[in-house]
Design brief:
elongated, 589 residues, Clc chloride channel, mainly alpha, 5% strand
C-alpha cells in the first residue's frame, strides 16, 4: 500500500468518516460540505434553544399554579432573581467563557483565538440564556444563538482539523446560521457575519456563510414552520413630505442608541466594582432588581418580541400605548437590559435595541400623526425606529436594513428605512459613537476598526506569559525545610498543594519572615499553618489587565493560573516579572 493510501486510511479511521471521505474532494468542495453541515446543526440548535426558552417561560409563567402565585404573592418579581441565581452558579462553576452578550465574545474569538470555541460553550450558553430570558430577564435571543452557532462551526472545524483561516470562517458561518434560523433571515444572517463578525467579503468566506445560513433557515422552516418573525401590515410613505419626519427620527435615534450603549457598559462596570457581592450572586441581584421594575412596567420583561408584534399588528388593530407609557417603556427597557446583562445574565442586546427603537418610533409616530393626520400610521415609524437603534448599537447599517426587510417581509418600508439609517449613522459618526460591540472589545484591547491596541497588558493572555513548569511545595512540609528549599531555588514564593496535588494556597518569604518574627518553631510548624489561602486566581484566557488587577487587589506579586471551572487544578503561575517580560518585544520593535 502506498504512503498516500495509508494516510487516507488513517485519516478515515481517525474521524470515523466512512460515509464521506472528504480528503478525496477538493478543498472548496470539502469546505462547502462542512458549511452545509454547520448550517444544519446550527438550525437544529436554534430549534432546541427556542423551545428551551418557551418551555422555561411556560413552566414559570403560564401554568395555573404560577399564575396564582403571581397574583397573590408577587411571584413575578422573584422569578428573574431565581433565574439569575441559577445562571450565576452555572457559569461560575462550569465555564465563564459562556457568559456575556455573545457577539463581542465571538468577534474576539475570531480575531484573537483563531476561531477556537469550546464545544461546551454552546451547551452552557443555551441553558444560561434560556434561564435568563425564560424567567423574565431583559435580554435577546440573538446574542446567545450567535455564540451557539459559532461554537458549532468552530467545533466541526476543529474536529476535521481545517486550516486556521477556514476555522474562523466556519465559526462565522455557524453564527450566521444561528441568527438566520432564529429570525428567519438568511440574508440578514449572511450580512451580519460579513459586516459585523468577519468584516470581510472575500468570495470563499461569503460562499461558506451563505451555504450555512440558507441550510439553517431551511432547517428552521422544517422544524418551526415558515413564519415571518415580525409580520406587519403594509407600511410605506404616504406623502413625500414624510421624508422630513424620517430625517428628524434619524437624528433622534442616534443619541438615544448611544445613551443605551453607554448605560449598558456603565452598569456592567458598576457590578464589577461590587466586590462585597459574590460573583455567582450578582445575576440574582440584577434579576431581582429587574423583577421589581417589572411589577411597575411588565412589558420590559423578557425579550420584548410580543410587545413589538403588538405595535406592528397585522390585523389592523395595533396596540396603542400612550405617550407616558411609551416613554417609560423606552427608559425602562434600557435600564432593565443594562441591569440584566451588566449583572452577569446571559443574553443579547439586539432584541432590546429593536424594542427600544419600536417604542421610540411609535412615540414619535403618534406625536407626528396628531399634527399631520394624513401621514403613515405610527407603526411605520416604529418599524423604521427598530432599524435605526439596531444600526447604531451594532454599528451595522447594511445588516440593519436587510434584516428589517426580512423579519417583516415588507419591501415598501425599505426607502424610508434606508434614508433614516443613513441620517442616523452620519449623526452617530459625528458623535463618535462606535457601537456597543466595539466598546466592549476596546475594553479587551481589541479595536474592531484600525487595528489592535498595542499595549500588551490589553492584548496578551495569561496563557501566553505564565510559567508552566511551576515549582510547588507541599502543605505538610515544615517551614524549616521550606527555607532550605528557597536557598536552592531561584524563587521566593511558591504555590502550595495538598496530598491530592490540588492547589491549597500560596507561601512566600513574607509568610516565612512573619513566622520567624512570631518566634514559631520552624522545625515543627507546617506550611499549611502559615500559607495564604485567599490567593488570587486567573484563567488561561484572561488578559493581563485582569491579572494585574488581581495582583493589585490582593497585594501580591504572583497569581495562580487554574483551569476554568476547576479552581484547585493549577496549570501555571504568573509573577510581575512575567508581565514585564511581555513588554520586551514591544520595546525592541
Amino acid at each position: 500500500m502506498s504512503s498516500r493510501s495509508k494516510r487516507k486510511l488513517i485519516l478515515s479511521r481517525r474521524y470515523g468518516f466512512a460515509l464521506f471521505n472528504l480528503i478525496t474532494l477538493s478543498e472548496d468542495r470539502t469546505l462547502a460540505i462542512l458549511a452545509v453541515l454547520v448550517g444544519l446543526v446550527s438550525g437544529i440548535s436554534a430549534f432546541f434553544f427556542k423551545h428551551m426558552i418557551d418551555g422555561i417561560h411556560q413552566l414559570c409563567c403560564d401554568t395555573s399554579f404560577s399564575k396564582n402565585l403571581m397574583v397573590e404573592y408577587g411571584y413575578r418579581a422573584f422569578l428573574p432573581a431565581a433565574g439569575g441565581l441559577l445562571v450565576g452558579l452555572l457559569l461560575y462553576y462550569f465555564d465563564r467563557n459562556a457568559e456575556g452578550r455573545g457577539v463581542p465574545e465571538v468577534i474576539y474569538t475570531l480575531r484573537k483565538r483563531g476561531g477556537r470555541v469550546r464545544p461546551r460553550v454552546a451547551v452552557l450558553t443555551s441553558i444560561a440564556s434560556a434561564l435568563t430570558i425564560g424567567t423574565g430577564g431583559s435580554a435577546g435571543t440573538e446574542g446567545p444563538i450567535i455564540q451557539i452557532g459559532a461554537s458549532v462551526g468552530s467545533s466541526i472545524g476543529q474536529w476535521f482539523q481545517v486550516a486556521p483561516n477556514h476555522l474562523k470562517t466556519l465559526a462565522a458561518a455557524g453564527a450566521a446560521g444561528g441568527l438566520a434560523a432564529v429570525f428567519n433571515a438568511p440574508i440578514g444572517g449572511v450580512f451580519f457575519a460579513m459586516e459585523v463578525l468577519l468584516k470581510d467579503f472575500k468570495t470563499q468566506a461569503f460562499s461558506m456563510v451563505v451555504f450555512s445560513s440558507v441550510i439553517a433557515s431551511v432547517t428552521s422552516h422544517i422544524l418551526l414552520g415558515d413564519n415571518t418573525f415580525l409580520p406587519t401590515q403594509p407600511f410605506g410613505i404616504e406623502h413625500p413630505a414624510e421624508l422630513v419626519l424620517y430625517l428628524i427620527l434619524g437624528l433622534l435615534a442616534a443619541p438615544l442608541a448611544s445613551v443605551f450603549s453607554k448605560i449598558v457598559l456603565w452598569v456592567e462596570s458598576l457590578f464589577q466594582q461590587l466586590k462585597k457581592i459574590p460573583t455567582p450572586l450578582k445575576p440574582m441581584v440584577g434579576g431581582f432588581t429587574v423583577g421589581l421594575m417589572g411589577l411597575l412596567i411588565p412589558t420590559i420583561l423578557g425579550s420584548g418580541h410580543h410587545e413589538i408584534a403588538d405595535i406592528l399588528s397585522t390585523d389592523g388593530n395595533p396596540v396603542h400605548w400612550g405617550f407616558i407609557a411609551l416613554s417609560l417603556m423606552v427608559v425602562g427597557k434600557m435600564v432593565a437590559t443594562s441591569i440584566t446583562l451588566g449583572s452577569g445574565g446571559s443574553g443579547g442586546d439586539l432584541m432590546p435595541s429593536l424594542f427600544i427603537g419600536a417604542m421610540m418610533g411609535s412615540l414619535f409616530g403618534q406625536f407626528a400623526h396628531t399634527i399631520f393626520p394624513d401621514i403613515a400610521p405610527a407603526g411605520a415609524y416604529a418599524l423604521v425606529g427598530m432599524g435605526l437603534i439596531f444600526s447604531v448599537v451594532a454599528n451595522a447599517p447594511v445588516t440593519a436594513t436587510v434584516m428589517m426587510f426580512e423579519i417583516t417581509q415588507d419591501y415598501r418600508i425599505i426607502l424610508p428605512l434606508m434614508f433614516s439609517v443613513t441620517v442616523t449613522m452620519l449623526m452617530a459618526k459625528q458623535m463618535g459613537e462606535i457601537g456597543i460591540y466595539a466598546r466592549v472589545l476596546l475594553k479587551k484591547g481589541l479595536k474592531v476598526d484600525g487595528g489592535d491596541v498595542h499595549d500588551p497588558v490589553m492584548t496578551v493572555t495569561a496563557s501566553e506569559v505564565m510559567v508552566k513548569n511551576v515549582e510547588i511545595v507541599w502543605e505538610n512540609m515544615t517551614v524549616n525545610k521550606l527555607m532550605q528549599f528557597i536557598e536552592k531555588s531561584h524563587h521566593v514564593g511558591f504555590p502550595v498543594v495538598n496530598a491530592q496535588g490540588e492547589l491549597a494556597g500560596m507561601v512566600t518569604y513574607v509568610e516565612i519572615h512573619k513566622a520567624v518574627l512570631d518566634k514559631l518553631d520552624t522545625e515543627k510548624v507546617l506550611i499549611a499553618q502559615i500559607m495564604r489561602t485567599d490567593i488570587p486566581l486567573v484563567h488561561p484566557e484572561d488578559i493581563l489587565v485582569d491579572v494585574v488587577k488581581q495582583m493589585q487587589e490582593s497585594h501580591t506579586d504572583r497569581v495562580a493560573v487554574v483551569e476554568v471551572g476547576q479552581p484547585k487544578r493549577l496549570i501555571g503561575l504568573i509573577t510581575r516579572s512575567n508581565i514585564m517580560a511581555a513588554y520586551q518585544p514591544e520595546s525592541k520593535a
